[in-house]
Amino acid sequence: MIFAFLAALPWIPIFRWIDIFDSGNNFGRGNLAFVFAYAAAAVGFNLIVGHAGVLGLAHAGFFGFGAYGTAILSAPAECTGEGCEPIVRVAQSGYDWPFLLAVPMVCLVAALIGVLVGFPAARLKGFFLAIATLALGELIIKIIQLDDDIWRGLKTNSGTGKQVSLFMIPGLDRTLSAYMLALVALIIVFVAYAILTERRLGRTLKAVRDIDIATGPIGISSTYYKLVAFALSAVAAALAGAAWAQNSAFVNPSSFRTRLLVFLLVVLIVGGVGRLWGPLVGAVFFVWLRQEVQDTQKLLFLIIGIALILAVLVMPDGIVSLPSRISGSQWAKGVRSRLRFLRFRS
């Protein structure tokens, strides 16, 4: 129901009073598309951190891999032969794959890389695991920055930024297409997360998280399930990165460094770790905050730091836990008891 509402939102813009999320114009639609992309990435992050209990910090690297992978594969090939018009901007040259073929291919490769990352990481714990996966995420971005001989058409603007070949949904303009692609990515990741975590995989990941040392004697391979979590998390991040790139129309490695990892942590922690709707609520909060203080990056990081501290100390279960916390408070119980008393007297 919520996703049907979000799909119809561009045609029934009821949030006109919030300029940042006014779906009646391209600015609001673009911000909502970023919300969906960040939320999709955070759902995958939630699987590995919230359910598997593995502090894997390579998520920003997989997000960048999805953005760059689809940009490189789907961009038109540079024309160098006779009788054809050469591409003016080198940043546009690529391999001319159909976008709908490039996305699943990139997600598949991301899953394989996630498994390779997971093999050494599954044997590490705590601080060592965090540092190792953070380094692997940075390694992915460094590989993207390799010489033009490796990545055809990647060099531009004295760096490695790349023009994204936009996929247009028939009947929709660029912004609406990006909006719908990001929403589809969120729906795919969200539905897969909801189904998997309610089945054996989700229950086993929780067991691995809570009693890792006891899973071996009862025939559960914690390494295997951690590898599955790494692979699925990488797929979610890559799919979100592809949707993000369609909305941004230009990708650059600087967008996928440690700063992005901090942003995804904010989305996850502020929204609610291990909560179904936490990533979406956290993404709305983050995109709203970033737009409000976009002129001052230092202020953004200051507020992010304060928000993380408050979330950990005051709302450890995130914003989505507020309704249950309020309903379970002594104040709410007192109000309910008074209402029952008044109904009884009447």
Description:
The model is unreliable at 86-90 and 153-158 (pLDDT under 50). The longest helix has 27 residues, at 222-248. The chain is 65% helix and 1% strand. By secondary structure, it is an all-alpha fold. The chain has helices at residues 2-8, 26-51, 59-74, 99-121, 126-144, 174-197, 200-210, 212-215, 222-248, 258-271, 278-292, 297-313, 322-327, 330-345; strands at residues 162-163, 250-251. Helix 2 (26-51) packs across helix 10, helix 3 (59-74) crosses helix 9 and helix 10 (258-271) runs parallel beside helix 12. The protein has one domain.
Question: Topology of this structure?
Answer:
Layout: H1 2-8, H2 26-51, H3 59-74, H4 99-121, H5 126-144, E1 162-163, H6 174-197, H7 200-210, H8 212-215, H9 222-248, E2 250-251, H10 258-271, H11 278-292, H12 297-313, H13 322-327, H14 330-345
Antiparallel strand pairs: 1-2
